Write a sequence for this structure.
């Protein structure tokens, strides 16, 4: 397994075979712990990144025709920005120089399913599709509904208000 440390290291990706890059973080959160009005810096390790690492290594040994890479987002911010990594861990699947799939989170079944889907010599499109005028139903996009967004917004605002109130009355 090769560690990608910069954009120059992307030249080691294979052009015809499937490449999988594991974007992980050594330190996920740098927070401040308030203990008796004394601010203490703390670091929290990325639990999901460390939990999926042994399974990712096992997959790299199981699928010999697929090339596996690792990329620390703190050390290679330019690479993470290129692939728009926004969650840890994120697994980016690249074939023929194009991103063909992405799995966010420590989802071992999802990673293996994506490897099986893209590593074979099958075509990149697998599905029935729809004909024009067939109606077809709803799209299968993963966009959140507006009511879901609103409820999350209200919860966030309530938590922020509670925090501000606690901070104000503790002063």
């Amino acid at each position: 397994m090769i560690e990608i440390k910069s954009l120059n290291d992307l030249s080691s990706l294979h052009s015809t075979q499937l490449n999988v890059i594991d974007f992980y973080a050594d330190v996920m959160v740098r927070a401040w712990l308030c203990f008796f009005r004394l601010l203490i810096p703390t670091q929290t390790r990325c639990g999901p990144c460390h939990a999926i690492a042994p399974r990712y290594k096992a997959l790299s040994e199981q699928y010999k025709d697929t090339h596996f890479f690792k990329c620390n987002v703190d050390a290679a911010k330019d690479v993470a920005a290129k692939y728009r990594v926004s969650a840890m861990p994120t697994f980016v699947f690249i074939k023929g120089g194009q991103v063909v799939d992405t799995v966010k989170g420590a989802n071992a079944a999802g990673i293996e399913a994506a490897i099986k889907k893209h590593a074979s010599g099958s075509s990149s499109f697998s599905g029935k599709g729809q004909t024009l005028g067939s109606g077809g139903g709803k799209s299968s996009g993963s966009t959140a509904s507006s009511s879901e967004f609103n409820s999350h917004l209200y919860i966030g605002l309530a938590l922020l208000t509670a925090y501000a109130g606690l901070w104000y009355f503790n002063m």
Notes: Strands lie at 2-3, 19-24, 27-35, 38-45, 67-72, 90-95, 98-104. Helices lie at 47-62, 77-82, 108-119, 146-170. The chain is about 35% helix and 25% strand.
